[in-house]
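quick one, 148 residues, struct below
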Amino acid sequence: MVPWPNLITGAVGVAGIGGTILAAWMTGKRQTANLKLSINAENQRARVAEKRRIYASCQASFNRLLAAARRPQHDDAELDSAAAGASAAVSELVLIAPDDIGQQAETIRRYLGTYVAGTAGGADTDAKLPRLSKQLIAAMRADLGEKP
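---
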């Protein structure tokens, strides 16, 4: 005689164990996918924050150079330091920014260099600067996914 109740109980137990294993496996896959999404989102946030920091640093270096050049009594050491800071900021920017933003930043850096040289002789050469700056800021904001 076959002990049917024992066999049925055993089969139900094996099925329950199998179901538990399957559920744990499926949950693990979902958790792995969620973890990957979370890590990717955090990496994206960090990348945007780093770009924002570099873009702001570049703009600040341009402002320091412009302010140093506009002072009535030029301090050559301050101008040299500000120019070196602007060059370093643009060099850092071109590593992380799209090509058009890097080119625009380099154009402004060169233009500021011309302005610094021109102000030594008392010339006012910054007529294009507001337009160039506005274009660069708009491109930076677009790259960061922000509205202009």
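The first helix runs from residue 4 to 70.
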